[in-house]
Amino acid sequence: MAEATLPVRVRGLTRRFGDFTAVDAVTFDVRQGEIFGFLGPNGAGKTTTIKMLTGLLAPTSGEGWVAGFDIRRERPAIKRSIGYMSQRFSLYTDLTVDENVELFAGLYGVAGEHFRNRRAWILSMAGLQGAERRLTEALPLGWKQRLALGCAMIHEPPILFLDEPTSGVDPVARRRFWDLINEMAAAGTTVFVSTHYMEEAEYCHRLALMNRGRIIALDAPGALRRRVVEPVLRVRTDDAPRAMEALAPRPEVLDAAMFGRDLHVTVAEADAGAAVVRTVLEAAGRRVLDVHVIEASLEDVFVSLVRAQGGAVVG
Amino acid sequence: MDLHRFWAMARKEWIQIRRDPRSMILAFALPPFLLLFFGYAITWDVEDIRLAVVDHDRTAASRKLVEAFASSGYFTVTEHVATVAEAEEDLVRTRVRGVLTIPVGYDRELRSGKGVPVQLLLDGADANTANIAQTYASAIMARHALGEVLGGRKPAQLLRLEPRTWYNPNLESRHMIVPGLIAVIMSIIAAMLTSLTIAREWERGTMEQLAATPVGRLEVILGKLLPYVGIGLFDVTMIVVAGIVFFGTPFNGSVLYLSVLTLLFLVGALGLGVFISAAVKSQRLATQVAMVATYLPALLLSGFLFDIASMPTFLQGITFLVPARYYVAVTRGIMLKGVGPSVLWLQAVFMIAYATLGLGLAVTFFKKELRA
Prior knowledge:
The structure holds 2 protein chains of 2 kinds.
Chain A: E1 8-17, E2 20-30, E3 35-39, H1 46-53, E4 61-66, E5 69-70, H2 75-81, E6 82-85, H3 97-107, H4 112-125, H5 141-152, E7 159-163, H6 171-186, E8 190-195, H7 198-201, E9 206-211, E10 214-219, H8 221-226, E11 232-237, H9 240-247, E12 253-259, E13 262-267, H10 270-283, E14 288-294, H11 298-308
Helix pairs in contact in A: 3-5, 4-5
Chain B: H1 3-19, H2 21-41, E1 49-55, H3 60-70, E2 75-80, H4 84-92, E3 98-102, H5 106-112, E4 119-122, H6 127-150, H7 173-204, H8 206-211, H9 217-247, H10 255-280, H11 283-300, H12 313-319, H13 323-337, H14 341-370
Helix pairs in contact in B: 1-9, 2-7, 2-9, 7-9, 7-10, 7-11, 7-13, 9-10, 10-11, 10-13, 10-14, 13-14
């Protein structure tokens, strides 16, 4: 594939704020029609990268092309080719649904018959028929997010940038939002999305794991999970918090984290590790119900990769 | 500059103004309130100066002198007291502004032709009123003395001064105040209204969304200004009409010329507000800066309250930086004197420069912020 036609191409992109390096020489490509995810804790550099790609922020160094346009020199062309939804809900809350749609149609030069079609599409996509004249501030957050998505899509951009689009939205609304993103990707739109929700990351075709301004891994979610070299044990006991207290200081235990009532315990080797876990817990007076090797979750992957690089998770 | 985008911005801004009670009050309620408030409160006309009289003579002649003061229209005799001490008490308590003391033997001395001193004590705490009262009193005394000497005969005059005051024949200060007020009120309203507009977008996060669209700086600024220019023109019309109806302000000049210069003034003043808003990024701070930067200079240094020519040279220099200065000259010139471009061209030039500066600052500062 000719590189110029890649929706997003980034080479050594860096942004510093004074002494702080928010984004540190990141390099990646995003392919046509894929859902490309940025996963990482707050402060990892996800938003800063998106702002550089959308023309809102100038890079300190490095290069990037969005829709074939240079992110340093061709910002107006980029802005016409992308849709952008910022981290914070940022439509006009004192405007009605219709007025917001009309505003963004005007700003993107969508008029006449085309506008009427797009407006109808947005209202049906976002499930906002009947709410056209309601003030945006009166809508539930999930509806607002879908409206914001619609406004970002009014000019049918080939690339969509979504910066933590579902933060604060309830799980049902979040699920529905992701159904929409999937539909758009299926229809050929390239979607670039950032999130710190691990379960959302699973919806992405490819994921870049970010920590402290760097991409520490980039692959499909399944492939990333298989990368964890150390086995992860799911440990079920009568008292997870106390079990964790007992396990955490042991040198054989690389990591212990609570997942609901279970513990996920990363160890160096599965069988020996399981034996250590049982011994330690029984010595601490816990009842061990089950110890089982499981497939690593994305969170395990993240923690494991950060540990492998000797760094701590920020945020 | 794309008309679609400009129009979309203007439309959005107008809808927001309509839904924001604060903006609506600023735009439509404050101007008439300020007009009525200032229009009735500020006056330099000195009439009915309250006077206490201490008549030690108590003769027909002394009563005639008091009558000359009372019938002049400028003085009202509110107190007749027996002693100077009592009169001084009135003066201290500001019950009266002046005390007229007629000495014992006034009538006799007058008849003998020796000349007689009559004392007028004035309250110098209000120097302006005291000054005017003294002028009035001297004139009354001179006329009265002439009448006494001639004994009712008409004086034959060789030289006679015949003053005529043009543009405001009765020297009513209100006629000066209303046109000047337009400039002061619009300076405040314009900067206050727009000072919120950019800062609000930053505080609410909408600026980021806006910045991600293809809309340009000029489209944002001009789109935002359009509804405010409309409001400003409406306000000026409202104040002019109210001035004519309630205060009898004359309108002798060209409506078209006033409109054109008003437009220039508004673009400059509104642009200044946008600039402040873009520079400080906080609604609260922007309002305060806008208030300080416009209200005091417009009130004190525009020539509205104080004659610029009588200011110290240093202050006169500063007035050139106060846009209201040019607009005060314009509104007074057009409404009272009925003058046109041939007289006001210099003001027009300054106002064009000011409008360009206001708009330029707004666009320049907005650019920086959008890309930060």
